[in-house]
Write a structure and sequence with these properties.
It holds the Pfam family AMP-binding. By secondary structure, the chain is of the alpha/beta class. It is built from 17 helices and 26 strands. Strand 11, helix 11 and strand 12 form a beta-alpha-beta unit. The longest helix is centred in the first third of the chain and has 17 residues.
Length: 540
Amino acid sequence: MGWMKDETGLGKTAANFVPMTPLSHLRRAAHVFPDNDAVVYGSFRKTFAEYYERATRLASALTKMGVEPGDVVATLLPNIPAHAEAHFGVPACGAVLNTINTRLEAETIAYIFDHGEAKVVLVDPQFIPVTAQAIEMMEGPAPTIIEVADDQAGVHSIGEYPEYEDFIAGGDPDFAWVMPEDEWESLALNYTSGTTGRPKGVVYHHRGAYLLTLGTAITWPLPRHARYLTIVPLFHCNNWNHTWALPMVGGTLVCCRDITATAIYNAIADEGVTHFGAAPIVLNMIVNSKDEERRDFDHTVSVFTAGAPPPAATLRAIEPLGFDVTQVYGLTETYGHVTECMWHDKWNDQPEEERYAIKARTGILMPFMEDITAMDAETMTQVPMDGETQGEVMIRGNSVMKGYLKNPDATAEAFEGGYFHSGDLAYQHEDGYLKIADRAKDIIISGGENISSIEVEGALMKHPAVLLCAVVAMPDEKWGEVPCAFVELKDGVEATEEELIGFAREKLAGFKSPKKVVFQELPKTSTGKIQKFELRKAFK
């Protein structure tokens, strides 16, 4: 050990140890890039100096309202500037940011409000009715609503609640940010679609988000003054942490409320967008767009895609249009992407078929992670890297969640053996590159949104004619996959496909309801367990 045995006087001090937090990126950007474009949305244009001031005013206004460090502030917002400001302003007052999926139904939103104990919620006028409905269903104290009008999109205030611009105008521009004393402090709370129906609250810490932003900038890469289009919802793993990363490189956030091919092409042509992240459904939208929706541009746009593995055919079709696509993979529990299909020059000369098959792989761990591999979940040992033996994707590293809020048992189970158990099955190639084969949890990923098959089954089982049902993923050209329900009816009772779909839609968010119903006797094991793998064969 030598002199390391005696480290007298070599302890952590304020001079040499500062807790890592993505908040540092915007504080620095306001100083280093004060006049650069920070956030752009139609005629809304803010520099980094202004972005920092608006986030500061938000932090101050929340504090004046009684929000204390450790309290939860929720959002029900599209990808608009106020949502980006909340990513800095909410933690800058020491609070925890809870971005809620805007596609959820009132009952689930009510559960999230209660479980996370939100004190305040920032709401787009479009989502005021479902928010009000959710608050009526709550068991605990209701959050205070702040309405965030979006005049750019013609979504004006309904006038019943304090409006965001007035609210932050009352904040102090000199408010001192509440920086974390410990980088393990909670930064964000994100609810994942669990297989048990009830979503689990995934808790992020400042350290994990900070390291993911640095790693993303290195590996994507995000050059100085990148111009990034927000297609990934800010409620999805906090926009895969990209909004937190941009100030680090003086990059511009170009907000996109409604994701259409026209909006994407206009942003590239008019705003010079260089980067975006998106689910494969968005790539398909671009590939299948009409000539009149497209615009000419003379640069290559870098794209990260995740949410479900993109077909090689999609990658082959989009690249000639001016997009350089890299597949990434991750989960809500890992702050977004933690693997990338990193390209090696040795593959450049491969035949086209082979090149796109490689590009369709899930990939290899990113630089801020420690180990991501496929293991036998029972023995926690590595499966052979032979391109065919399946194992569960196991993940270790600094961008793994703290755990599930108020659910120590689920947390312990997820971390058993010193790895995060992803629930995704994959095989590995000789070079360690993973390829997702199936999802162990029967999650259906539709347009990048997770749908719990068990939740959909639970809704259908409430119909008086349904004896048994099983929901599996059905391939869909537009959404990647959608729920298909196999239903066994009770003796002597009738029901139609339309009736059951309509029944489910009354109980579930639209995207979760089944798109097809097949009536048949369900295949079962000797113990009566439904064999979903048999049902999936219908789509093979």
